[in-house]
Structure to design on (550 residues):
């Protein structure tokens, strides 16, 4: 595959155009346009029901779009899969029984035109120690790592991971991302879905933020983190004009409700110091990290009524 | 044909204890227990061990073929066929490997029974062994289709009783366990089962005639009917994305 990064031609790793998919009356994906360059590591970040999995299913050809198109390295998903260009770890799924881990990976490798060597896959994913164990005797975390090995065995140019770390504990999660990073460093394109901002920020170059089937933000990880990583300071503070609150260091927006103030902060540490310095009378202080859900509401505030209906 | 893939399918079917016991061990043990005790008896002009070898061969091979269905059902439930859709393996190649695995385990069953038969004095020549094997393999075509059909129809939990009950009923009606009526309504029913013709294939070992036209037509009709059902269930299942 080509590694030239040119978003205007067919060399895009993934190109989604006006992609939509409904299940019954639910618009799971609602008109998505997205271009991912070869070699990028991109996080699809969003709460449950944002349309991440449906988007991934369409990229993989497991679901048929109602409208719009999907191209992977300029091909249809089916063509890309036939060439072994895509490896994927789906959200759910068990392993085939009655084989050892090594046998299962060897079996899967035999299906592809240019697979990675079995020993290499075992080593990249750090599962050499369980290579001779039967697949039905693995723990949940071990099963996930074998599933990631299956995703890598074709030596794909595009690796897709749908909430890969959900069943993993902290330790396994870290090891998992270390091996995925190692794989991405070979110039591979990696797309993963997650609902953890920290995970997206730590492992992706770029974050595509999804909510209710749409892309609500798309940019470098640091930028998106600044947008959604807000903290809110709530306090009681009578008789202060809103302009003097928004002027405080670290504060992005402020709300006033009677004597209650709410400050949405980019830098809550700086903001609380500035607040206490400027208004020593402030009381009932609470500082809370805005959850992802809350951040989405801020970003997509104009659609709140839609959600209620 | 991907031989590595096929080899692992075969390894898996041998390691699956339940299928292994019912398609290989059970017929073998029953053959020794029942035919061994009655080895000098003649039945319908056929030495009893030969008669019983035919019955056990039909039973074991039917189980071997329909176990393919159990494996398909289990893989569907585990989400494994979704995983396979992300590989270059076509569904056609997937089913081909499954059916071939069924046939290979069926062959192992027959070979083991031939060896057991030889120790009890069953008359075996290369010609009649080959002739019986050939007819059994053809007679199993309906069961290959049956396996694919039920594999797409049942869950892994419900398919076990279906295979156990269904195969036992077919074995009973078709005369695999005990001699069946040689005339009357029961005989007509027996001849309408695909099992009866598997048993008849075994009787060729004792110099009985090969399948009549009725046999060929019955086996073909079952093969076509079950293939249509299998194809329909398969399409319905894979169309769902």
């Amino acid at each position: 595959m080509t590694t030239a990064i040119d978003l205007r031609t067919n060399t895009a790793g993934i190109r989604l155009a006006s992609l939509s998919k409904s299940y019954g009356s639910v618009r799971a994906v609602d008109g998505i346009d997205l271009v991912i360059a070869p070699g990028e590591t991109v996080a699809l970040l969003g709460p449950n029901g944002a349309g991440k999995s449906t988007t991934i299913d369409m990229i993989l050809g497991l679901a048929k779009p109602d409208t719009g198109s999907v191209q992977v390295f300029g091909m249809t998903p089916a063509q890309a899969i036939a060439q072994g260009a895509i490896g994927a770890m789906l959200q759910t799924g068990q392993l085939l029984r009655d084989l050892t881990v090594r046998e299962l990976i060897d079996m899967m490798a035999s299906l592809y035109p240019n697979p990675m060597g079995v020993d290499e896959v075992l080593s990249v994913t750090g599962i050499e120690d369980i290579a001779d164990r039967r697949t039905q005797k693995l723990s949940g975390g071990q099963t996930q790592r074998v599933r990631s090995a299956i995703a890598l065995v074709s030596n794909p140019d595009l690796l897709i991971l749908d909430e890969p770390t959900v069943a993993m504990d902290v330790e396994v999660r870290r090891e998992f991302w270390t091996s995925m990073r190692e794989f991405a460093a070979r110039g591979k394109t990696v797309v993963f879905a997650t609902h953890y901002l920290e995970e997206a920020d730590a492992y992706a170059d770029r974050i595509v933020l999804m909510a209710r089937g749409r892309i609500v933000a798309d940019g470098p990880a640091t930028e998106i983190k600044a947008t959604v990583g807000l903290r809110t300071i709530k306090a009681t503070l009578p008789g202060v004009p809103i302009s003097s609150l928004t002027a405080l260091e670290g504060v992005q927006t402020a709300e006033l409700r009677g004597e209650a103030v709410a400050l949405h902060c980019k830098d809550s540490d700086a903001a609380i110091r500035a607040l206490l310095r400027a208004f020593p009378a402030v009381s009932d202080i609470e500082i809370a990290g805005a959850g992802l859900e809350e951040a989405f509401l801020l970003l997509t505030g104009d659609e709140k009524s839609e959600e209620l209906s | 044909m991907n031989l590595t893939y096929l080899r692992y399918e075969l390894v898996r079917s041998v390691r699956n204890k339940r299928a292994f016991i019912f398609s290989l061990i059970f017929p073998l043990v029953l053959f020794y227990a029942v035919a061994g005790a009655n080895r000098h008896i003649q039945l319908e002009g056929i030495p009893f061990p030969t008669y019983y070898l035919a019955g056990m061969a039909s039973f074991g091979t039917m189980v071997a073929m329909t176990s393919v269905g159990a494996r398909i059902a289990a893989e569907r439930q585990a989400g494994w066929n979704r995983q396979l859709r992300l590989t270059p393996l076509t569904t056609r190649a997937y089913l081909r490997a499954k059916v071939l695995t069924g046939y290979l385990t069926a062959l192992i069953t027959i070979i083991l029974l031939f060896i057991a038969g030889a120790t009890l004095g069953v008359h075996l020549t290369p010609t009649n062994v080959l002739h019986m094997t050939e007819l059994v393999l053809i007679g199993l075509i309906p069961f290959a289709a049956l396996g694919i059909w039920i594999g797409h129809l049942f869950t892994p939990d419900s398919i076990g009783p279906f295979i156990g009950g269904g195969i036992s009923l077919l074995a009973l009606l078709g005369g695999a366990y005990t001699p069946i009526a040689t005339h009357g309504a029961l005989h007509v029913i027996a001849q309408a089962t695909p099992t009866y013709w598997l048993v008849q294939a075994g009787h060729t070992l004792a110099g009985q005639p090969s399948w009549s036209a009725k046999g060929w037509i019955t086996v073909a009709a079952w093969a076509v009917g079950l293939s249509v059902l299998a194809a329909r269930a398969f399409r319905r299942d894979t169309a769902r994305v």
